[in-house]
Amino acid sequence: MNSLFKNREHGWAPLVWLVYSGFFFVQPIFDHVSRRQWIFDAVGFLAFLILYFGLFCLDRPRPFLHIGGMVLLGLLFLPFNGGASTFFIFAAAFVPFSAETPAAAVAGLGAIVAVAGLESWFLRVPGWTLFYSAFFPLVVGGGNIFFAERNRMNRRLRKANEEIEQLAKVAERERIARDLHDVLGHTLSMITLKSELAGKLMDRDPARAGKEIREVEQISRQALSEVRDAIRGYRAQGLVAELAQAKSTLETAGVTVQCDAATTVKLPAVQESVLSLAVREAVTNVVRHAQARTCRLRVEQQNGSCRLQIHDDGRGGSSIEGNGLRGMRERVEMLGGTFSRDTAAGTTLTITLPLKELTQQEASQRDTRQDLPQEDSTQKASTEKRPIHESLAPKPGGCAS
Fold it and tell me: For the chain, how many structural domains are there in total?
């Protein structure tokens, strides 16, 4: 019985519907039938209950066998008990929920009505008995066709929602994997570079070595915060901060940086986040694998789109994309952009994203974010975020545009 009441579609309703089966005992009560007739009726009603609850409680019921059994009970008892018409009504009520299509339900209802009507005609039963045996089942079953179709639509909708929920979980796991790959890959590269630099400076310049070790500590703390943010689903600090950090990382690795950033590009938050992650992953690959001497970062706006190009003069690489590049491509393509990678002469990554028109709120939030102080663990404890062209302007030992 547990499976009966746990079903979300009907719950306790089958017990309520069972009340209508009481009409089977109306005639025996008023006609004061014999004990033998009562026993006969009780056995028939017990058989009905088995067929009825079997539809709800069995794991794999055979509905048309149960429905056929109810029709058979109606045929057997109608000659002695006019209340047996209730068996035809129950059978007709279940047909729409058991048939696969409305057309099949109509055919099943027609068969029940034909059988009940023919028997009622041969038996010359009273008019009301004929009505309840042949016509009322048609009314009940016809109405249930609508409810059965609605139930099927609800089941399909629940199934679709479950699939969407499952896909959302998979997408979220993939997002967390991509974000953690980008965060930890970049941060561990920075820690490795600065640790190696501190080791080389330990004897020659202890003060500088101490400074590098302190920056390693700051980067580690920042990495912990970024991992937590990645799990929450928000991590991007903005393209300006990411380009500044990329420049610092490349210079620490001994790579000469050339920066060419458009001064008027304004990006929606989602596009800016994707480009920031792309810069982070690309710079991590340059430091780890490229063995490059120079690297050029270029951001420009053209024909309603934003174009990011990162080129290094290193040894190029395999055409097979790793997890980081694959995640980068997936992010770009989800926004309707294009991603290309050329390894003929060094490595050139080109990303183009379509720019939607910024709403006034987005523009205000972006301007406010650029004016707020931004912590940069690779340079100062706190520096003011400036527009792209100011943040990447040439400085002593810095980036030549």
Answer: 2
